[in-house]
Amino acid sequence: MSLIELNNITKIYPLGSQQVTAVAEVDLSIGAGEFTVLAGPSGSGKTTLLNLMGCLDQPTRGSVTIAGKSVGERSVRELADFRLHNIGFIFQSYNLIPVLTAAENAEFTLMLQGFAAPERRRRIAALFEELGIGGLEERRPNDLSGGQQQRVAVARAMAAEPSVILADEPTANLDSKTSEDLLRLMRRINAEKGTTFVFSSHDALVISLARRVVRLKDGRLEADERQDGKNSEVRIQESEENLNQGP
Predict the structure, then answer these.
(1) Nearest-CA neighbor of 202 among 12, 11, 41?
(2) The sheet that has 220-226: what strands, in order across it?
(3) Which residues form the ABC transporter domain (predicted)?
């Protein structure tokens, strides 16, 4: 079942007196439950494509459909409401609010959706335990490590149980072990809950653990590869064994 449909997408940005084509004539379908990475070097168009999927930007030409609903011709307010109820975001820089606690940051989307405080606390407590950050609810972002902040961002993205979670370079600011632990966790969530994940990344680790790799070059779709998952399952198993053994 297709969750995201991009049909003949082109995005052109003005740059002074010139124009820059960030994405050109891309057709792409993302199925429900996929674990997909948009791969390519800087300037390949992967972040632009992710922003178009997330309704953070509008295409110059072409159409975007998410969960059977066209996102074209919608007002700014309608798009904001659509994002709020359908899409979870994990940003490279975490985007946590410094004056809020970890729990308050994680429940922010639920608060915007109108969930009562007891239900917000229940969901966040369960997610924090699942993500391995239980007990850190009252800490503020500056008192957390990079890996802990990113897990708070994952909890925030997952809290409202969106159709899809979009992650822009989620391992860019993390060391290799923290990156692998986080990706292993996302793979488990994907497998157990069926949550759809789409990443933008040029990180070889992210690419190796994805089940599908969509490669971009100069704004165009260069390749669309499906991986059997055997290598990634081995990497995940090894990571779990190392965690269980401890230092």
Answers:
(1) 41
(2) 87-90, 164-168, 196-201, 35-39, 212-217, 220-226
(3) 4-243
Averaged pLDDT, groups of 10, the chain, 247 residues long? 91 91 96 95 93 93 88 84 90 92 96 95 93 94 93 92 91 84 87 92 91 96 82 46 42
Crossing angle of the two packed helices 230-245 and 176-193, in degrees rounded to 10? 110
User: Which string of DSSP letters, residue by residue, matches the chain?
Assistant: -EEEEEEEEEEEEEETTEEEEEEEEEEEEEETT-EEEEE-STTSSHHHHHHHHTTSS--SEEEEEETTEE-TT--HHHHHHHHHHHEEEE-TT----TTS-HHHHHTHHHHHTT--HHHHHHHHHHHHHHTT-TT-TT--GGGS-HHHHHHHHHHHHHHT--SEEEEESTTTTS-HHHHHHHHHHHHHHHHHH--EEEEEE--HHHHHH-SEEEEEETTEEEEEEE--SHHHHHHHHHHHHHHHH--
Residue with tokens 């072990």: 177
The pTM of the full predicted model, rounded to 2 decimals, is 0.85
> Would you say 93 and 170 are in contact if contact means Cβ atoms under 8 Å apart?
no
* Contact (Cβ atoms closer than 8 angstroms) between residue 168 and residue 198: no
User: What are the structural domain ranges in the chain?
Assistant: 33-59+75-245
